[in-house]
Amino acid sequence: MKIKQYVPSTSNLAYSVGVTLDRFIKMKQDDFPFASGELSQLLRDIALASKIVNRETNRAGLSNIGGAFGNTNIQGEEQQKLDVIANIRFTRALTKGGEVCAVVSEEDDEVIDLQNKSGKYVVAIDPLDGSSNIDVNISIGTIFSIYRRVTPIGSPIQAEDIMQPGSQQVAAGYVLYGSSTMMVYTTGNGVNGFTYEPSLGEFFLSHPNMSAPDNGKIYSINEGTSNLFEPGLNKYIETCKQREYSARYIGSLVADFHRNLLKGGIYIYPATSKAPNGKLRLLYEANALSFIAEQSGGKASDGAQRILDILPQSLHQRTPLYIGSKKMVEEVEEVLRNYREFV
Q: Helices 287-295 and 253-263, interaxial angle, to 10°?
């Protein structure tokens, strides 16, 4: 019997699809030695739910699941049909997985106790960010944060399990549903991105060790409300224009953040005279993206302090957000500070 030694092919006839998300998670389990497989499975559960949501968004125009659902959420925002569908998909996946004891969702007024007595983790999630863009076929996303519960396993969920600062996250990520679907996440040891291959039904590592440029030439902000901004912010925006920076604002947080993470830039959703606390939610939007920003070498601030240091006081607490390339965030913080000192 002849035995032929395998030699990797250098032929262009078959391209390499690379490392799957599942295999990557197994390879990186040493990054969180305190876990015994639960966190790895939890990330797989989120990936599975995102595949289902990806399928739903791709056929939204054909299956009458676009448009408004007819209800408003706790934010006073009109729910889209896909908001509701995505919330159900992720909550169901997290329930069946068994690793999560409670979920905080943008679409639910209260904490959802999943009744998983052995669950070690709490998940804060925006199931479908930017869903108002669905009907015009613009990229949308899912944002998630993962925390370890601090009270004993098996006991009732307490406020201290939920109201943790972002610095206590053990993992965070987002899924971008766009021209291709990507899942980007961190467990506190760098940031990695995976692109979904629909014909195989798998996420493959496409963006290893993602690093945000230290500086950039993109600013992302809704300038239509500039008359409501504080003077320092308008000064910073004017400086960006004088430098001929590019204004890029999709209106979908995940899409804007993802572009700036890759290309270098700053995303700003500030406090205004009408919304002095800002609009974005701390627990399930700002914290997750801030963790990713810092792990990729960027920075995130509310204009005065580090986002991840803020101790939440309420479930759907809002915050201003300045996030992106480190030098750009530091510059706008300095401009704001200088103007505020004279007020």
A: 10
CATH number of the domain within which 315 lies: 3.40.190.80
The binding site for substrate consists of 129-132, 222, 249, 279
pTM equals: 0.90
Quote the CA–CA distance of 237 and 335 in Å, as a whole number. Answer: 10
Measured CA to CA in angstroms, residue 279 lies from 35, 122, 183, 276, 285 at distances of 34, 23, 24, 9, 10
Does some domain include residue 14?
no
Q: How confident is the model at residue 296 (pLDDT cuts 50, 70, 90)?
A: very high
Domain boundary among 147, 177, 207: 207
Could you list the residues known to form a binding site, using ranges.
106, 126, 128-132, 222, 249, 279, 285
Number of domain units in the chain: 2
The two three-digit tokens of residue 281, written as one number: 């939610």
Residue type, 122: V
Whether 139 and 238 share a structural domain: no
Tens of pLDDT, residue by residue over 143-173, are: 999 999 999 998 999 999 999 999 999 999 9
115/32 same-domain check: yes
- The annotated binding site for Mg(2+) is made up of 106, 126, 128-129, 285
Q: Tell me: the pLDDT tens digits for 93-129?
A: 999 989 999 999 999 999 999 998 889 999 999 999 9
